[in-house]
């Protein structure tokens, strides 16, 4: 039978072990990546499950459509720049050609003066035709001036010819860039029309599915989700402003293509929130997924953009504690949710 001192030692050791285990668990929990969770809470309604699947598909098509529009705007910007460069190159080419013609006339004039009469404009001819040493010096000085002018005319012609060639090359380059941008824009326009048609078709199917939702299903969709932390501390002013702005829109309805201030789609909410902080994000979630600095999941901070699916088709704003604020999908509202299972990356805009 153990003595009381031994019992106290054993009890103390067990207590210390428990404390160490608790501290270790607390520290690992604080640094570990947030646990993934479904975008929406599980539901027993098959109708709502089907509706959310259709809505998720529609959201992907919508984000593809927005990305195509982003690309089209970029190509149109490139076309405008190329057309501007082309116009400048044509003006430079015209001026260079005009200079080339003018300097060529100067060179031709010197050539006529030198060779048409059969006499060479040089100091030997001045010596042979002069009547005195002073006459020779005077003629030599005049011929020297003429020679300098002739060399200058030849140099001017050479430079003007080079400028004409360069302007022609620049114009050809600008013409090629303009044609490429124009062709790309035409393809993207066709792609946008195709995606818009697909979205319209998906929306029609979604509308039909909406008719089978019960009042309980609709109430579940209108729920604003989990309660956000009360002491969210973002690492910077811009991130803090964006987080506060997005949280202030809880309960606002999801609407395809909406960018606020009363309705949003997922990337519309994030772009609107960061706009309040003076930061302009790209319009689509896929384009936003390349904006700013990449952040590992275990280093997420409030204000970071969190992305889902591959290719990216959904985005929210991380608020800490494994949660985000986002506009989920059609029929739903801006809410706070746990991070989804389909996490695909994060970016820090500020």
Identify the CATH class of the largest domain: Mainly Alpha
Extract low-pLDDT stretches: 1-41, 116-121
Mean pLDDT across the residues is 78
Number of domains: 2
Calculate Rg over CA atoms. 38 Å
Give me the CATH fold name of the largest domain.
Answer: Helix Hairpins
Shape: elongated
Main beta-sheet annotation:
6 strands, antiparallel
Helical content stands at 55-70%
CATH architectural group of the largest domain: Orthogonal Bundle
Q: What is the rounded distance between the termini?
A: 67 Å
- Residues in β-strands, percent: 5-15%
Structural class: alpha+beta
Q: How many beta-strand runs?
A: 6
Which quaternary structure do these chains form? single chain
Number of helices: 8
Side by side, the strands of the main sheet go 1-6-2-3-4-5
What letter string, H or E per element, gives the SSE order?
HHHHHHHHEEEEEE
Biased composition (Low complexity): 168-179
Keywords: Hydrolase, Protease, Signal, Thiol protease
Pfam family, one: NLPC_P60
Protein name: Hydrolase Nlp/P60
Give a structural overview.
Pfam families: NLPC_P60. InterPro entries: NLP_P60_dom (IPR000064), Papain-like_cys_pep_sf (IPR038765), Peptidase_C40 (IPR051202). It comes from Amycolatopsis antarctica. The chain has about 350 residues and is an alpha+beta fold. It has two domains: about 75-210, Helix Hairpins; about 225-350, endopeptidase domain like (from Nostoc punctiforme) (endopeptidase fold (from Nostoc punctiforme)). About 60% of the residues lie in helices and about 10% in strands. It is built from eight helices and six strands, in the order ααααααααββββββ. The chain has helices spanning about 5-30, 45-115, 125-130, 135-210, 215-220, 235-245, 265-275, 285-290; strands at about 295, 305-310, 315-320, 325, 335-340, 345-350. It has a six-stranded antiparallel sheet. Strand 4 (about 325) and strand 5 (about 335-340) form a beta hairpin. The longest helix has about 80 residues, at about 135-210. Mean pLDDT is about 80; it is low at about 1-40 and about 115-120.
């Amino acid at each position: 039978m153990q003595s009381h001192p031994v019992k106290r030692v054993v009890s103390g050791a067990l207590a210390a072990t428990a404390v160490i285990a608790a501290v270790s668990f607390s520290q690992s929990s604080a640094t570990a990546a947030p646990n993934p969770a479904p975008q929406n809470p599980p539901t027993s309604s098959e109708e709502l499950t089907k509706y959310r699947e259709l809505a998720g598909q529609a959201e992907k098509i919508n984000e593809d459509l927005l990305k195509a529009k982003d690309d089209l705007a970029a190509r149109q910007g490139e076309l405008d720049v190329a057309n501007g460069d082309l116009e400048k190159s044509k003006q430079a080419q015209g001026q260079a050609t005009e200079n080339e013609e003018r300097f060529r006339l100067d060179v031709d004039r010197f050539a006529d003066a030198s060779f048409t009469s059969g006499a060479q404009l040089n100091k030997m001819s001045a010596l042979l035709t002069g009547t005195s040493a002073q006459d020779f010096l005077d003629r030599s000085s005049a011929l020297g001036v003429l020679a300098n002018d002739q060399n200058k005319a030849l140099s001017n012609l050479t430079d003007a010819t080079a400028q004409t060639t360069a302007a022609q090359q620049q114009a050809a380059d600008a013409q090629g860039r303009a044609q490429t941008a124009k062709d790309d824009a035409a393809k993207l326009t066709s792609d946008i029309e195709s995606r818009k048609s697909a979205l319209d078709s998906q929306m029609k199917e979604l509308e039909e599915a909406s008719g089978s939702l019960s009042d309980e299903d609709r109430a579940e969709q209108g729920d604003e989700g989990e309660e956000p932390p009360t002491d969210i501390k973002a690492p910077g002013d811009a991130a803090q402003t964006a987080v506060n702005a997005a949280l202030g829109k809880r309960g606002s309805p999801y609407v395809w293509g909406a960018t606020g201030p009363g309705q949003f789609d997922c990337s519309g909410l994030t772009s609107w929130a960061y706009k309040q902080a003076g930061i302009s994000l790209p319009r689509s979630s896929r384009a936003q997924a390349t904006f700013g600095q990449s952040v590992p999941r275990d280093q997420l901070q409030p204000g970071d953009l969190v992305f889902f699916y591959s290719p990216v088709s959904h985005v929210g704003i991380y608020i800490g504690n494994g949660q985000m604020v986002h506009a989920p999908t059609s029929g739903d509202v801006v809410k706070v949710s746990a991070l989804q299972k389909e996490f695909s990356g994060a970016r820090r805009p500020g």
